[in-house]
């Protein structure tokens, strides 16, 4: 049995056929899915999803949507205030998806938004689910400085082994997804092969990050390909790998 540690079932891409998507996930052997938030306008949709015992949710403000997030507005209409209220309800298992993306620019704004969410994670004693592109070294430094609870997920990790090691030493798990299934992902293959058994989880990032050979929308059932490729790289059976990555996810999110 597998767990998809990071997907976005609350996005509009799944509004029409969500029940069919969940049914295919069950048929593929997926026992649980973690839905990561991106914008405040989808938090209520996430709470509706969480009525299904097979779905847990994280609330967060993604760095891609700086123009969507309402940050410098009157009290009561600030998305960070909204996020804090949602976290206070106790339904979310983590803060995220939040983080940094060098490609998007406006790094001062990204840092400000991330720092605020890291403080919320510390206040509510929750793990963080982090998006990090081109900023692994800077992120590692900030996580050390803030003395956060030693648990969280670096979603879709794509860095070097040295960067992976630093994040693991801080207590963070690495998300392994569809990018790893592509033949040209040689550095990522080496990292996945070297990770400790308790150092990573499987994820799809649905509807994005399709595995090799998949076109169009990604969905949780496609995690089977990721599991098989990771097992091949690590010279273990897919059943063995699915078991210990599910255990890692359960421990991280206190499922």
TrEMBL record:
Chain residues that bind a divalent metal cation 2: 131, 155
Transmembrane segments: none
Keyword flag Nucleus: no
Cellular component, GO annotation: cytosol
Leader sequence residues: none
SUPFAM superfamilies: Metallo-dependent hydrolases (SSF51556)
Residues annotated for a divalent metal cation 1 binding in this entry: 6, 8, 97, 205
Keywords: Hydrolase, Metal-binding
Residues forming coiled coils: none
Molecular-function GO terms, alphabetical: hydrolase activity, acting on ester bonds; metal ion binding
Matches recorded under InterPro entries: Metal_Hydrolase, TatD-like
Similarity comment: Belongs to the metallo-dependent hydrolases superfamily. TatD-type hydrolase family.
Name used for this protein in its record: TatD family hydrolase
Organism expressing this protein natively: Larsenimonas rhizosphaerae
């Amino acid at each position: 049995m597998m767990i998809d540690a990071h997907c976005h079932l609350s996005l509009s891409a799944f509004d029409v056929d969500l029940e069919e998507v969940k049914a295919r996930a069950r048929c593929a052997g997926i026992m649980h899915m973690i839905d990561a938030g991106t914008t405040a306008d989808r938090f209520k949709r996430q709470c509706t999803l969480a009525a299904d015992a097979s779905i847990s949710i994280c609330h967060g403000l993604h760095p891609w949507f700086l123009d969507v997030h309402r940050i410098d507005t009157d009290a009561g209409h600030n998305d960070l205030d909204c996020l804090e209220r949602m976290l206070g309800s106790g339904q979310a298992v983590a803060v995220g998806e939040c983080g940094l993306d060098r490609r998007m620019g406006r790094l001062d704004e990204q840092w400000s938004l991330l720092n605020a969410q890291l403080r919320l994670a510390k206040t509510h004693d929750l793990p963080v689910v982090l998006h990090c592109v081109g900023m692994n070294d800077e992120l590692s430094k900030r996580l050390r400085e803030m003395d956060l609870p030693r648990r969280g997920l670096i979603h879709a990790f794509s860095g070097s082994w040295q960067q992976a090691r630093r994040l693991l030493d801080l207590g963070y798990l690495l998300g392994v997804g569809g990018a790893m299934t592509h033949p040209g992902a040689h550095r990522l293959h080496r990292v996945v092969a070297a990770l400790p058994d308790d150092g990573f989880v499987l994820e799809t990032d649905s509807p994005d990050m399709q595995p090799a050979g998949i076109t169009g929308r990604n969905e949780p059932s496609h995690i089977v390909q990721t599991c098989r490729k990771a097992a091949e790289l690590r010279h273990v059976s897919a059943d063995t790998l699915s078991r210990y990555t599910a255990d890692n996810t359960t421990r991280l999110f206190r499922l």
